[in-house]
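in:
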C-alpha cells in the first residue's frame, strides 16, 4: 500500500513555501497517492529521474499538466514538443534542435554580455533596485525578443517594446498556471489573457517575424521539409511560451540565493567565472519549474506501487533536486557544487531545448553584476508570486553596493 497524503500541491499555502512540504512528500515514500486530485506523486530523485527517462511507460502526449488530454479538451492545441511522444516528438525535436543549434546560440553571446554589462552598470549606480522588475524581467525581456526576431516597431518603439513584454509575461503566466488544476490562479490568469493569446498567435506567423532570428530559423526547417509550415508556427509558439517566464524565475532564484548567502556572493565577486556554476546551482536549488506531469501508458509497478494505465503522475522536480539521497547537504546554496544531474531542466527526450540559451543569459547577468557589485543584500522581504508550476516572486527588493 502506497502512503496517502492529503497535501494539495496547488494550494496557496503550498505554493508560497513548497520546501517543507516537499520534504514531507519525499519522506512519505517513493510513490505517494495524492488524494485531493486522485493522482500519484513522486518527490525522490531516483523515481523522478527514472520516469523522465521512460517516455514509453510515462507519456507526455496526454498532457504534462493535471488535465488528461484523452478525456478533456486542452485549452490550446497541444505543443508538438512538450505534449508529444515519439515518433511525432522526434521529428519536431530534430527541427527545433537544428534551429537552436549550439553554434546559433553561441553567436548570441557577445550581445548578451554587452546588454548585461550595460544593465549592471546602471543598476549598481542606482543602489536600491527591485530584483524582479529591474533584473530578472528586464534582461530576458530585452534580449529574448531580439534573439527570436520579434519586431519591436519603429515609430513608437518604446510602446511597442512594452507591449511585447507584457504579452510574453501574461502568456507565460497563463501557460504555466494551466498545467495545474482550474483553481483561482488558472482562472485569474485566463481571464486576463485574451489579448496576449491573440498577440502570441499572430507572432507565430512567418510574415510577422524578422529574418535572421531564431524563429526564422524554425521556418527554414519548414523550407527544408523537416516540418510543415503550420508545424513551424507551433514550434515558434513553444519558444514564446517556454522561453521567458522560466528564465525570469531562474534569475529571481539566483538573486535570492546570492542575496541571502553573502559568502557565495563574495566567491562570485572575486571570480566572476563562477557565474555559470552559480546559475546552474540556482536552477537546482530554486527549481524555477517545480513540477511536470506524466501519464501512464500501461500498468507498471514503481517501488512496489502499481500504477494503472491512464493514471496521472506528478513529478516534483524541485523536491528531487533537493533529495539528500542524491545531493549532499541539498538545501545548502553552494555555487561551487557540481550540480550536474539535477532535473531542473528535465531529463531524457524532453530535456529543455532552451537550456543553453537560458544558461547563457544567466551567466551573462550574474557575471556582469558580480564584476560591478561588491555586495548584494535583501532590502526588504521578497514577495512570492504564486503560480501552479513556477516558483518565483512578484518583488525582490535588493541593495547593490560597488
Ligand atoms: C532556466 C530556464 C528554464 C528552465 C528551468 C526550463 C525548464 C524546462 C523543463 C523542466 C523542461 C522539461 C519538460 C518535460 O520534461 O516535460 C523544459 C522543456 C522545454 N523548454 Fe525549457 N526551461 C528553461 C528555459 C527555456 C528557454 C529559454 C526556452 C526557449 C528558448 C525553453 C524551451 C523549452 C521547450 C520548447 C521545451 C520542450 C522540449 C521537449 O519537450 O522536447 N526553455 N524546460
Amino acid at each position: 500500500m502506497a502512503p496517502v497524503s492529503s497535501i494539495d500541491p496547488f494550494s496557496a499555502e503550498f505554493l508560497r513555501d513548497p520546501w517543507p512540504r516537499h520534504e514531507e512528500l519525499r519522506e512519505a515514500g517513493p510513490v505517494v497517492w495524492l488524494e485531493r486530485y486522485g493522482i500519484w506523486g513522486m518527490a525522490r530523485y531516483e523515481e523522478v529521474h527514472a520516469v523522465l527517462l521512460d517516455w514509453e511507460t510515462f507519456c507526455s502526449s496526454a498532457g504534462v499538466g493535471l488535465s488528461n488530454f484523452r478525456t478533456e479538451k486542452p485549452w490550446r492545441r497541444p505543443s508538438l514538443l512538450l505534449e508529444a511522444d515519439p515518433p511525432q516528438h522526434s521529428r519536431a525535436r530534430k527541427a527545433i534542435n537544428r534551429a537552436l543549434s549550439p553554434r546559433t546560440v553561441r553567436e548570441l553571446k557577445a550581445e548578451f554580455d554587452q546588454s548585461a554589462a550595460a544593465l549592471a552598470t546602471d543598476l549598481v549606480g542606482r543602489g536600491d533596485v527591485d530584483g524582479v522588475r529591474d533584473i530578472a524581467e528586464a534582461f530576458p525581456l530585452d534580449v529574448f525578443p531580439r534573439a527570436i526576431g520579434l519586431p519591436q516597431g519603429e515609430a513608437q518603439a518604446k510602446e511597442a517594446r512594452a507591449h511585447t513584454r507584457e504579452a510574453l509575461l501574461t502568456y507565460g503566466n497563463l501557460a504555466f498556471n494551466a498545467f495545474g488544476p482550474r483553481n483561482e490562479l488558472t482562472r485569474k490568469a485566463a481571464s486576463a489573457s485574451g489579448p496576449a493569446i491573440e498577440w502570441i498567435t499572430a507572432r507565430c506567423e512567418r510574415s510577422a517575424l524578422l529574418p535572421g532570428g531564431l524563429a526564422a530559423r524554425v521556418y527554414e526547417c519548414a523550407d527544408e521539409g523537416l516540418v510543415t509550415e503550420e508545424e513551424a508556427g507551433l514550434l515558434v509558439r513553444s519558444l514564446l511560451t517556454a522561453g521567458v517566464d522560466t528564465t525570469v524565475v531562474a534569475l529571481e532564484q539566483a538573486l535570492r540565493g546570492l542575496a541571502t548567502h553573502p559568502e557565495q556572493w563574495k566567491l562570485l565577486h572575486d571570480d566572476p567565472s563562477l557565474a555559470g556554476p552559480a546559475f546552474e546551482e540556482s536552477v537546482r536549488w530554486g527549481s524555477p519549474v517545480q513540477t511536470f506531469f506524466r501519464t501512464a501508458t500501461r500498468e507498471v509497478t514503481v517501488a512496489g506501487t502499481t500504477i494503472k494505465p491512464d493514471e496521472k503522475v506528478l513529478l516534483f522536480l524541485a523536491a528531487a533536486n533537493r533529495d539528500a539521497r542524491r545531493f549532499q547537504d541539498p538545501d545548502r546554496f553552494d555555487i561551487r557544487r557540481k550540480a550536474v544531474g539535477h532535473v531542473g531542466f528535465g531529463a531524457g527526450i524532453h530535456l529543455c531545448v532552451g537550456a543553453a540559451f537560458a544558461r547563457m543569459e544567466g551567466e551573462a547577468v550574474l557575471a556582469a553584476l558580480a564584476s560591478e557589485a561588491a555586495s548584494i543584500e535583501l532590502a526588504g522581504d521578497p514577495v512570492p508570486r504564486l503560480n501552479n508550476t513556477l516558483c518565483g516572486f512578484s518583488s525582490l527588493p535588493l541593495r547593490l553596493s560597488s
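note: Residues 157-177 form the longest helix (21 residues).
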